[in-house]
């Protein structure tokens, strides 16, 4: 039996070495600007039991066939299993800070197979110095000169490019690049570039400048068609071929992705054969994540929603709506996001287009439904399903408090709730009597009718002035305390009265005296006063209960604007 166990362990170890559970581990950037988002993507084999994410050996989250675990609110983990050959496991840092820099690992729980990426904090360069410093510079034609460009401290190290402006300062399209004539070195986070340049008489009046960039974002792509810069629409006859070349600067070097009707492509040059004018309608629009119909969220909690559709030509654009709790009336639906506000992936290779929308829970939107709308020039289709929002939270403070039906030992309290929190509600009552100290007082009856509340107070002292305040609470917490309310109980055997009962009794006494003088007329007056009293209102009790649900997550990527620094001076040549 021992040999069998040994043989199994040996086979397991050999299999772990031969088979790689982790296919690849990628990140959108390794030098991260503080406050920006970071997205890790870990591809694992389909049969992998589970993977875990770590930073410097500290667990951040894991995925297995049994569950998903995230141990920090600073991170989001998500998974895509739509591929037949591998799983996509994502780790998102919502807001990067300096303490999050370190070595990140995607590791197989079963075999320990792993891949690692190191993240560093980005420090943008703020200036570059050009030497010599005098401007203009006097040079001799056909004589070699050395020029130096040195950056401020920055992480990562900057790349430096050299140019002549060709006497057109306001037009960069015709600048002449001299970078191949330069060499660069890095030391102590400072980049130093040296240009060896031999001017000719044609360089008289030109300006020489350097441009430094250390990864604060790629430049705007520039494109060429038939060797000409593309500044406007290109017109192609149906059936002709199309070739466009684009380029962009950045550190690290940016990659280019093309999106066009019918597909996507990555690379600097796009080639399309036999351009056609066919159009295809959008079809099968639905919310694919979360998969449940009802989503329970706490106040201000974020939920990432995913909507997808079958590809159309041209590609679909998306809008997101709240139905305003009136499913049969579309005219009052609220537009909450469009393509400008959401992340859209054109996954044409899989036959679908996907839109991601981040929703932030608001108590006023509880009971409404989220749905998406996809459209192109051919048609528009609303998602076949929607998400019912149940927003829970700490209830708001009681307001509009009224004390009714005051007797010598009891009273009825009525108030309103702007927000109940969406969960079962309880009430806490405090009274301040003759002792001037706040004391908790038991509520004998509590009736919750939506936002209209009622509670009964018993065991009060007769002929006592009270100050009252109210707090409501649920399992998530307590509301703020209400405004204080004053009332006074009646004397023993004083009967039943509304708040301000002394004035009413005084009116009845006056009516009795008046009746002695006026006879039957006074009795009619008393009858009228009694008829004017409101009948006691009956409240229905309703309770809202909800269980905390899981929040499905996906991801979105963050675009960073381009920043660069440059210095220039004019050259004056002298003939010898």
Automatic annotation (TrEMBL):
Q: Which residues form the Fibronectin type-III domain?
A: 397-492
Q: What keywords are assigned to this protein?
A: Disulfide bond, Glycoprotein, Immunoglobulin domain, Membrane, Transmembrane, Transmembrane helix
- Quote the Gene3D superfamilies the UniProt record gives: Immunoglobulins
Answer yes or no on keyword Iron.
no
- Where the record annotates domain Ig-like, the positions are 124-226, 290-390
Q: Where in the cell is it found?
A: Membrane
Membrane-spanning parts: 502-527
Q: How does it sit in the bilayer?
A: Single-pass type I membrane protein
Where does the record place Basic and acidic residues bias?
Answer: 545-554
Protein name stated in the entry:
HMCN2-like protein
For whether the record's keyword set contains Glycoprotein, the answer is yes
Top-rank taxon, per record: Eukaryota
Region annotated Disordered, chain positions: 541-560
